[in-house]
Specification:
By secondary structure, the protein is mostly helical. The protein contains ten helices and no strands.
Length: 260
């Protein structure tokens, strides 16, 4: 059981620092060790990410830190909520259509590997890429919807793709993008979680594992938030790049084992 706590804690520390929610690490690592069923891992990962992002967002609000712009923040969050609902539904459809549970994990691993690779390449070359300054509420809502859908379907809480999208479309600096990413993660995961409860689609899972992962998620959020304040954008970028490389390797290995 201690493995559940350690995975959630360490992933949430890094997730809070980089603004990627931790689920992008939790989901593939739990898949790697086959610690639960596909549906249970999806649910446990989502709950952990929700707890960590709730803490980080709550602390940010209490501290009076203003990271969301009125013209784009609201539409981004609204789109993320709708995307979270859509992603939850998409996961249910893929799961129902799959001949075996491993197929769902294989699809998720392939998507995660591709998304993470694209994110890594963008991050390496971002200094040479001309970014946008999206101001349209409608465009912001559509971007939020896409991010929320991916977050919920992959069970990763948003992951690295959030940062790249915020970098490119809104020209945000690393730490501001991380803060905005956590808002998107929180609201998309909250929407997905509530739908799972209301539709009685909660999978069978180990309650001690959930308690340990939530404790690890909140604890990791606390430590990660403190580390974030002591790190500059360059240090966060280096940590982010190293993490992307690890995630790609784990995702490709998971894809191989689920299709072998």
């Amino acid at each position: 059981m201690i493995v559940f706590f350690l995975v959630a804690f360490l992933a949430s520390v890094v997730g809070a620092i980089c603004g990627i929610g931790g689920g992008v690490i939790i989901k593939p690592v739990l898949d790697l060790f086959h610690l639960e069923t596909v549906a249970a891992i999806q649910f446990l990962s989502g709950c952990t990410v929700l707890s960590m992002s709730a803490y980080s967002v709550g602390r940010s609000r209490l501290a009076g830190e203003k990271q969301l712009e009125a013209s784009t923040g609201g539409p981004l969050i609204a789109g993320a909520v709708i995307g979270g609902l859509a992603g939850n539904r998409l996961f249910s459809l893929v799961k129902a259509a799959a001949a075996r549970p491993q197929t769902v994990s294989a699809v998720q691993a392939a998507c995660l590997a591709l998304v993470t690779l694209g994110t890594l390449l963008y991050t390496i070359w971002k200094a040479k890429i001309h970014t946008k300054h999206v101001k349209s509420p409608a465009a912001s809502a559509l971007i939020g919807l896409a991010l929320g859908l991916m977050s919920s379907f992959l069970g990763i809480g948003g992951g690295p793709i959030n940062l790249v999208v915020l970098f490119y479309f809104f020209s945000m600096e690393t730490k501001k993008a991380a803060a905005n990413s956590l808002y998107i993660i929180f609201f998309s995961q909250l929407a997905s979680f509530l739908v799972t409860l209301l539709t009685r689609a909660v999978p069978v899972f180990q309650w001690p594992a959930l308690a340990l992962m939530i404790a690890g998620g909140i604890g990791g959020g606390i430590v990660g938030r403190m580390c974030n304040k002591r790190m500059d954008d360059r240090a966060v970028d280096k940590l982010f790049l190293g993490l992307m490389a690890v995630i790609i390797c784990v995702s490709l290995y998971n894809l191989w084992q689920y299709t072998a």
